[in-house]
Write a structure and sequence with these properties.
The protein is built from 16 helices and 17 strands. By secondary structure, the chain is of the alpha+beta class. Belongs to the FAD-binding oxidoreductase/transferase type 4 family.
């Protein structure tokens, strides 16, 4: 261990190598507090060259490496399992100038999403992806997991925002793919390979991001419904609007908990709610009102046309980040379902949870336009008896067991519920081609059966 510590310190300096047991224990536990691992050192390199050197040190010594950004993931994707070296990207914090003409900015992998939003706004532009953990989630981690979030219905996931990447491969080679033209069909689309690879194919060090114009007008609405199918149908109608930014499903049970336990000023009384936001160069209020009238919800929607009002309505969505932790670490499911199956899946999943963990409280929210839902099971001590059963229900209803959080280590042994054996074998071949010793993010994505 002393030899490894000294070798790492030779690259980054002694102050940026930490072996304190308490620090490592904290950094080896995921955000939910449910999953924990073990690490031998935490290293915080300053730049791409140091990352390349660190990877070479670890690879030559046979030491596994787990890459960490903001550690806001929800599938234990940064939890080490093999006394790993933790490679933190937090010092890769450079923020380039906004290129107004091209609508782009280059940032380090350790820059937070909130910092990107701030830099874009200062230049009169916006970044299209937003998630609840914006203050701590890093761009490198979001690229690695192909994060989605609140505005995917309009702007798409991170893959749609990435214009170029710099990546250090497992062998220490640095690859920079940053075309300056809009049309580039010269060879493989390498950035697409690394986006969503969850750190298994290299360490993302900097990213060229696409920025967009800020729409002049914005209207937000929050509407209660009596059934989930009604929310789905309303989402289908509203999605036809030009400029729809968000269509968020909210579980009335979650709002009741927020009002009761968090004293949150949120609506209650309906089983389901739909938060919709539309923005455009023209005022979309009349168009939104016309569609809401056509939908005919059981109560008059709340509508906001200014920033303070919008913030009040969005509080109903934002409160779920706290609600899901009210009874300790929740059991989390991130899945995508065909819209025609969403309501029946929810009924079946609720029944399965009730039969295996009667005291548990299922809470559902998510991006209803894409069928991308987050099922959180609160107060669930019998996690093992529930987890696979619900994932099998996702598969049986034609869904995908990992929609936007990635596979991580939590779902690696359930990958066959989403992908064919041929799919998994092809992915494994790519992994072994770039990382033949399988030392980089070893606990992530691939089933144990492939590694033994």
């Amino acid at each position: 261990m002393d030899g490894l510590r000294n070798a790492l310190a030779d690259v980054v300096g002694h102050r940026f190598v930490v072996t304190d047991a308490d620090v490592l224990a904290t950094r080896s536990t995921d955000q939910t507090g449910r999953y924990t691992g073990r690490a031998c050192a935490l290293v915080r390199p300053a730049d791409t060259a140091e990352i390349a050197a660190l990877l070479n040190v670890c690879r030559s010594r046979g030491v596994p490496v787990t890459v960490q950004g903001g550690r806001t993931g929800l599938v234990a994707g940064t939890v080490p399992e093999h006394d790993d070296v933790l490679l933190s990207t937090e010092r890769l914090a450079a923020i380039g100038d906004v290129d107004l003409a091209a609508g782009r900015i280059t940032v380090g992998a350790g820059v937070t999403l909130a910092q990107v939003h701030s830099a874009a706004a200062a230049a009169g532009l916006k970044f299209g992806v937003d998630i609840a953990s914006r203050d701590t989630a890093t761009i490198g981690g979001m690229v690695s997991t192909n994060a989605g979030g609140l505005h995917t219905v309009r702007y798409g996931n991170m893959a749609e925002q990435v214009l170029g990447l710099e990546v250090v491969l497992p062998d220490g080679t640095t690859v920079r793919r940053s075309p300056k033209v809009l049309s580039d069909n010269s060879g493989y689309n390498l950035p697409a390979l690394w986006v969503g690879s969850e750190g298994t194919l290299g360490v993302v060090t900097s990213v060229d991001l696409k920025l967009r114009k800020i729409p002049t007008y914005r209207v937000t609405s929050l509407t209660g419904f009596d059934t989930l199918q009604d929310v789905v149908e309303a989402g289908r109608v509203l999605r036809a609007l030009d400029g729809v930014d968000a269509l968020e499903l909210l579980d009335g049970r979650g709002l009741e908990l927020a009002a009761r336990h968090l004293n949150a000023a949120v609506p209650t009384g309906r089983p389901w709610y739909l938060l919709a936001e539309v923005s455009a160069a023209h005022d979309p209020l009349e168009d939104l009102a016309e569609l809401l009238e056509r939908i005919g919800p059981p109560q008059t929607p709340a509508v906001a046309v200014d920033a303070p009002g919008s913030t009040r309505l969005w509080a109903a969505r934002e409160c779920f980040a706290e609600v899901v932790g009210l009874f300790g670490p929740p059991l989390k499911f991130d899945a995508a379902l065909p819209l025609d199956s969403l309501a029946t899946f929810t009924e079946d999943a609720t029944a399965v949870i009730a039969s295996r963990a009667p005291e548990a409280i299922p809470i559902l929210f998510g991006h209803v336009a894409e069928g991308n839902i987050h099922l959180n099971v609160l107060n669930c001590p019998n996690a093992d008896t529930v987890y696979r059963s619900v994932l099998e229900l996702v598969r049986d209803h034609g869904g995908n067991v990992s929609s936007e959080h990635g596979v991580g280590s939590l779902k690696r042994n359930y990958l066959d519920l989403a992908l064919s054996a041929q799919d998994i074998a092809t992915m494994w071949a790519i992994k072994r081609a770039l990382d033949p010793s399988d030392y980089l993010n070893r606990a992530v994505m691939f089933p144990d059966a492939l590694r033994h």
